[in-house]
Design brief:
By secondary structure, the chain is mostly beta strands. The chain has one domain (2-229): Beta Barrel (Lipocalin), CATH 2.40.128. Helices cover 6% and strands 70% of the residues. The chain is built from one helix and twelve strands, in the order H-E-E-E-E-E-E-E-E-E-E-E-E. It has one helix at 2-14, and strands at 36-51, 55-74, 78-91, 94-95, 99-111, 116-135, 138-157, 162-179, 183-189, 193-202, 207-216, 219-229. Strands 1, 2, 3, 4, 5, 6, 7, 8, 9, 10, 11 and 12 form a twelve-stranded antiparallel β-sheet that branches. The longest helix is centred in the first third of the chain and has 13 residues, at 2-14. It is elongated.
């Protein structure tokens, strides 16, 4: 029973908004230099993680809602974007409160075509949290730092108002959690490589809606997004 209680306590410590796949979007950009875009995304993911000491935590469920702001750097070649929002986590019918996190990323079109382009998208999210958790009936303070990196590359096809994209994906999670009872333990994802596929439509000249699914051997997610280019 003590082992079960300890594992649940560890689950709550590492169940942060940085421990889940989030929306990536197209691997290419069609923004002009200086153009600004704003939008939002929602993602629902399940992630297995590993703590130092051989403790595996499976199926941490995350629901995240993010605001997104992007700016074009080079015409149809490069954009940078920031993201910010909140997420709530669940594990074994236990849910956490929403927590805030932020990040940034870029899209780079490597090969331009008529309707079919190729490129790469990458984003970085960071989360730091100092709080208390109930571990084995003891209210225990902890300090959590986690970095989550997602990178994907592949084609993006835009026939008329439609959008289709996908390709290989890489996810890297690293960090640590420290508390008086547990000491300091590293936090890592259990697998790195996977893939994603998505599609959408341009509803108006500057308004797009997209959705995608992502998967690695130890994580999967679905996500949707809406973006308005000014």
């Amino acid at each position: 029973m003590k082992h079960v209680a300890l594992t649940i306590g560890l689950s709550l410590l590492v169940a942060s908004p940085a421990l889940g796949l989030t929306y990536l979007g197209t691997p290419t950009t069609n923004m002009k230099a200086g153009q600004v875009a704003g939008g939002a995304s929602y993602a629902d993911s399940r992630q297995d993680v590993e703590l130092e000491g051989g403790i595996d935590i499976e199926d941490v469920d995350e629901e995240s809602t993010l605001g997104r702001l992007a700016i074009g750097i080079f015409d149809e070649r490069m954009e940078i974007f920031g993201l910010f929002g909140a997420a709530e986590l669940g594990k074994d019918d236990i849910e956490t409160d929403e927590d805030f996190f932020f990040g940034f990323g870029t899209r780079i079109t490597t090969n331009l075509g008529d309707d079919l382009d190729w490129g790469i998208v990458g984003q970085f999210t960071w989360f730091n949290n100092e709080d208390d958790a109930d571990i084995n009936g003891v209210l225990t303070p902890y300090d959590l730092n986690v970095i989550d990196v997602q990178v994907a590359f592949g084609p993006c096809w835009r026939p008329g108002p439609f959008i289709a994209y996908g390709g290989p994906m890489f996810q890297w999670i690293t960090g640590d959690v420290e508390s008086p009872i547990l000491g300091k333990r590293d936090v890592n994802a259990e697998s790195l490589f996977g893939g994603y596929v998505g599609g959408g439509i341009e509803l108006a000249e500057h308004l797009s809606v997209t959705g995608e699914v992502q998967a690695t051997p130890d994580a999967h997610a679905w996500a949707v997004s809406v973006q308005w280019r000014f």
